[in-house]
Amino acid sequence: MYLLGERIKKKTTITIKNPYNNVVVGTLGQSNEEDITKAIRAAQTGFEILRNMTAGERAEILEQSASIIKKRKEDFAQIISRESGKTIHEARGEVDRAANTMKLSAQAALTLTGKTVRFDLSGPSKKFGFYQRVPLGLVLAITPFNFPLNLSCHKIGPAIAAGNSVIHKPATKTPLSAIMLAEALIAAGLPKQGISVLVGPGHTIGMGLVRRPEIRKISFTGSLEVGQLITEKCGMKHITMELGSNSAVVIFKDAPFDFVAKKIRKGGYSLAGQVCISIQRVYIEETVADEFMRELSLEVGKIKYGNPLLEDTEMGPMIDEAAIQKAEKFCEDALAHKGILILGGRRDNTVFLPTIFLNVSEAALIIKEEAFAPIIAVNTFKTVDEVITKVNDTKYGLQAGIFTTDITKALKCAQGIDAGGVLINESPAFRVDNMPYGGTKGSGLGREGPEFAIKEMTEEKLIVFDQLS
């Protein structure tokens, strides 16, 4: 754990292991209830310091942290790859994005403004006023294993930009990059009370923090089930929930199949499919299904999987044994629902092979739930209305992709699909860090992206003046 600018040694420790080969990557002290209280006390002091800093001072800290992250790119990338199992190329890309997210957060600090309020709308008035956005207080950031650095920056950067202090609870499997990020922020000039990192299981440390009344804001990325539990237990707090999905792609017969297959190869199998917006469902127009399946099978069959630290590896392992067993369950269920296995469907030690099913019942788990695995189901459709209905027939709604050259069909799908983002001629797994990112239905509440997240980290404070004479 990390408190008041130092790594804290504890009698009880957590060992972080490489999910590919089970080699120990590092050991950290495990936090307890007493540490929660210490972190909250530190954060309360940190908030008083940060709220009184100028926006320019906070922006400079974030800019400097971005520079430190860039300078230590390979160090961050090596740790991310070893603790999460993502390929070294994916890890390096994440470090670049994280530095950019901190820069965007710095910009958000400088552009956060309020607005004038009119009081003469229904008649003459001597009053005038405005509102400004003020920080909330203590922000709890709870982050997942799959993007342990950049998703942390998406919460911590805007929180600091707004003038809040942060307590970070990273995924227990990937806390090392979180500690490195906190160290970078302190080195960049953040007061040592401004950020703490508590390490431990979600059901104890995470929920212990969630319940504390001193916490004013919770920003969580994870599963729908845990998100629901947090909202039940947190009390009256501001919340942002970036939850799961089973993202769909719709492909019309006029789309270039070679181009689409390459997009699915990347969007469905990066980080072994362990991404919230990973492609899971593919709907292809019925008359061209066979032609498309040949193209997709050839493309996915080229994926080189294995040791994530090798430069030519495209897909690494699952995060743990439970994730592999869940993938196996989804495959068994797909077969039971009359799905035809085209590729994969099995494990190779800690790697689950890139998998494709065809013509799975719409009642199957792979259609209804989130697999979080390198598994894609391809089904067919005949009409635009039919495919919109199929895409929407889920509790999730994060992002969806449409591939067509027909602008009428594209817009009808974009307007009809219930998701936080609809991407035309692009994979639903596409994300840049300045866009508003978030979902509908069970995929979450609120939006990320520093320009948007900073608003979630503040509240409006109204100031009204009246002339006495």
List keywords for this structure.
469 residues, alpha/beta, Aldehyde Dehydrogenase, Chain A, domain 1, Aldehyde Dehydrogenase, Chain A, domain 2, 2 domains, seven-stranded mixed β-sheet, six-stranded mixed β-sheet, 15 helices, 21% strand
Description:
By secondary structure, this protein is of the alpha/beta class. It has two domains: 2-243 and 443-464, Aldehyde Dehydrogenase, Chain A, domain 1 (3-Layer(aba) Sandwich), CATH 3.40.605; 248-433, Aldehyde Dehydrogenase, Chain A, domain 2, CATH 3.40.309. Helix content is 40%, strand content 21%. The protein is built from 15 helices and 22 strands. The strands form six sheets. A seven-stranded mixed sheet has the order 14-17-18-13-12-19-20, with helices on both faces. Strands 9-8-7-10-11-21 form a six-stranded mixed sheet, with helices on both faces. Strands 5-6-22 form a three-stranded antiparallel sheet. Helix 6 (176-187) links the parallel strand 8 (165-169) and strand 9 (195-197). The longest helix is centred in the N-terminal third of the chain and has 24 residues, at 88-111. The radius of gyration is 23 Å and the shape is globular. The chain starts with a strand and ends with a strand. The model has no long low-confidence stretch (mean pLDDT 97).
